[in-house]
Design a protein that fits this description.
mainly beta; 6-stranded antiparallel sheet; single chain; 3-stranded antiparallel sheet
Amino acid sequence: MKHFWVLALTLFFLACDSGTEDRNPFLQEVPFRFDLNLNLPLYNNLNTIGNPVYVGNAGVGIRGAFVMRSSLDTFLAFEASCPNQTPSACSTMEIEGQNVVCPCDDLVYSLFTGQLLNRPDDGARYFDLLFYRATQSGSIVTISN
């Protein structure tokens, strides 16, 4: 029985992973919390599925966040800074329909999945959008990291 516990603890510690290889080296993950009131005209687009809104308030992420209702009761939120660029003058992405485009490198990302849609086939590593939590309580959607 003693050997079982030693083996179980060994496997547990080997299974633990810090996940540092998956972290985006271009974007620092900053803690924040911001409430969006769906009754305000500024966030009216969020009352319809598939209409993204840019939230550029100070203290929201690095360069702001894109928020979109993806179903009747689900919201998605992503960092607005290009995930494959160090923050610079051109690294705030722009909405194009239900996608966002990085003006620095013309890479396109889906706001439904966060995935890079036109991934170059050059062998380099590319990152998808940085995801933020989005929860709804009544007419308030809270985005946070």
